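Dear H.,

Thanks for agreeing to be a second pair of eyes. The structure we're designing against is below in token form, covering all 293 positions.
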């Protein structure tokens, strides 16, 4: 679970509701306050995450001249969704992403980024669009804190345990309290900022259980599709924290090598460099994106 560094939106950003052909999606939108827009970055969070995971990157990317759109996927936090597991398959989430892309007023190149489970979704969307032929609706793809296939064995075990106790077995509040007790027993320090701690609690309770079940299972079974992605003609980048635990950093570096692209390991970051080292991550991304015309 990513923990945002703060919750107050910068002056360049605002909350938004995106109206698409597949329904409304909650988003955070930032724009440069001076100078031309040099491109649009579309950011997808991972499992149990939300658009706020990218809040620390909004201002630096806007200052670099980019319009930024961070979106809650269907079933996450403020987007919501039905109690129907079919709505959260990778195919359905990829179709959602395509609809969001079409609803974005793209100014300049459109850059797509998926973090963690969001990496599965952006990969699925790109592969589906490439199979259709014609020009892709995105000008680059960044995979952040994600891997070639399923998560590591330890994280897969945690995901399986979580899925096994989700509603109707236990209510989300009871699951939350159990997760906090596990953190305490393992010596993990609690979130110090009470506002952020309250946000994390509210965000967890806002998840649609069906979405958590489907996406949690997907983390444990996603196949390696890197070879298929390598056939797509699209500028790509792989980014990780230097201490990622969900997919080992060497595995992510190997994925970049198979794709024939650069791998950037953000110093001092773990699984969520976007939240843990937002300025350094934004600088790396802006350098990649602004080089694409």
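And this is the sequence the design step returned. I haven't edited it by hand at all.
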């Amino acid at each position: 679970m990513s923990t945002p560094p703060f919750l107050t939106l910068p002056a360049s950003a605002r909350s938004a509701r995106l109206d698409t052909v597949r329904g409304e999606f909650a988003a955070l939108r930032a724009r440069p306050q001076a100078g031309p827009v040099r491109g649009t970055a579309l950011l997808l969070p991972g499992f149990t995450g939300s658009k706020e995971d990218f809040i620390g990157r909004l201002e630096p990317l806007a200052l670099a001249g980019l319009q930024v759109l961070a979106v809650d996927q269907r079933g996450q936090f403020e987007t919501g969704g039905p109690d129907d597991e079919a709505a959260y398959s990778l195919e359905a989430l990829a179709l959602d992403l395509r609809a969001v892309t079409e609803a974005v007023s793209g100014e300049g190149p459109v850059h797509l980024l998926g973090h963690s489970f969001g990496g599965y979704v952006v990969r699925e969307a790109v592969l589906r669009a490439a199979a259709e032929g014609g020009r892709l609706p995105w000008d680059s793809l960044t995979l952040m804190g994600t891997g070639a296939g399923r998560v590591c064995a330890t994280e897969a075990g945690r995901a399986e345990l979580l899925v096994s106790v989700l509603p109707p077995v236990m209510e989300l509040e009871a699951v939350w309290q159990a997760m906090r007790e596990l953190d305490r027993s393992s010596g993990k320090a609690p979130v110090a900022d009470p506002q952020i701690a309250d946000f994390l609690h509210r965000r967890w309770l806002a998840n649609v259980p069906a979405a958590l079940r489907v996406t949690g299972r997907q983390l444990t079974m996603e196949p390696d599709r890197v070879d298929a992605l390598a056939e797509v003609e699209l500028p790509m980048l792989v980014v990780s924290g230097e201490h990622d635990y969900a997919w080992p950093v060497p595995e992510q570096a190997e994925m970049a090598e198979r794709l024939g692209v650069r791998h950037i390991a953000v110093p001092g970051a773990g699984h969520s460099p976007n939240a843990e080292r937002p300025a350094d991550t934004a600088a790396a991304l802006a350098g990649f994106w602004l080089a694409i015309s």
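Two observations from my side: The CA atoms of residues 163 and 169 lie 10 Å apart. The longest strand covers residues 13-20.

Warmly,
E.
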